[in-house]
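Need a sequence for this fold. Nothing fancy.
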């Protein structure tokens, strides 16, 4: 059976997205099948697979890393999903539900998407891990954020350092996504993310970038508009009063539509 998919990316974080209307037998998507779709199917390697279910005017998003593991949320993925939904339905605003949380998206010009997103939650503060002071946040997905004050090491060395943190026993057994952020100026930070389930430093991770921006804003409460620089591109975070209404804005691209054999 051939099932259509969209190949998309946001700032270098790329996905295959399958949009279905409650007619797809999702039990077909075993962990091994998802790994195959992400790494082999159609000869296109991607970071993750998204099953996007349009059901009774509700939209449900399930994100899977390319190792087949399910993740609570992917913000770059939601940006790409909003573009796919606009292409399918020719409207600009959507409510996308992931892990029982609703994310409001708005498609704006030039393939930019604005996502309304809840205030992150600190799970633990001031954790000492592998020589770094860090904070553990839930920004839709779980992230460890570290204000990195040194000059950037080589990508290989950074990956080794971040991998040790990702597998630290404090976060066993599931592990954690690891983010280093560097302050560039008062309103700009640079973020590098090592993502569990993909097991590498990403071109970008939007939920990790959002967690870092919140951590930085908490330490500098007068700063509510923050530009985020990732290796794959730039994003913008806008925090509302008391962090009650917050937005993450970035660009996505629909590269093409293809078919997957299931």
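Here you go.
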């Amino acid at each position: 059976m051939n099932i259509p998919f969209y190949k998309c990316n946001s700032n270098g974080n790329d996905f295959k997205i399958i949009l279905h209307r409650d007619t797809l037998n999702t039990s077909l998507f075993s962990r091994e099948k998802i790994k195959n779709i992400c790494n082999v199917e159609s000869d296109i390697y991607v970071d993750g697979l998204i099953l996007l279910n349009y059901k009774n005017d509700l939209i449900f998003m399930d994100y899977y890393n390319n190792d087949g593991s399910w993740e609570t949320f992917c913000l770059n993925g939601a940006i790409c999903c909003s573009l796919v939904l606009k292409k399918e339905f020719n409207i600009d605003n959507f409510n996308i539900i992931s892990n029982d949380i609703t994310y409001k998206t708005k498609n704006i010009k030039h393939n930019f998407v604005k996502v309304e997103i809840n205030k992150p939650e600190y799970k633990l503060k001031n954790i000492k891990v592998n020589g770094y002071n860090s904070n553990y946040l839930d920004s839709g997905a779980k992230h460890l954020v570290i204000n990195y004050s040194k000059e950037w090491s080589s990508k290989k060395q950074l990956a080794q350092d971040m991998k040790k943190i990702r597998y630290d026993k404090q976060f066993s057994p599931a592990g954690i996504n690891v983010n280093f952020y560097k302050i560039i100026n008062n309103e700009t930070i640079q973020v590098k993310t090592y993502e569990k389930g993909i097991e590498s430093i990403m071109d970008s991770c939007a939920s990790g970038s959002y967690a870092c921006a919140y951590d930085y804003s908490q330490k500098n409460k007068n700063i509510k508009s923050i530009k985020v620089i990732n290796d794959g591109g730039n994003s913008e975070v806008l925090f509302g009063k008391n962090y009650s209404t917050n937005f993450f804005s970035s660009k996505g691209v629909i590269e093409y539509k293809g078919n997957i054999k299931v």
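For context: The CA atoms of residues 162 and 178 lie 6 Å apart.
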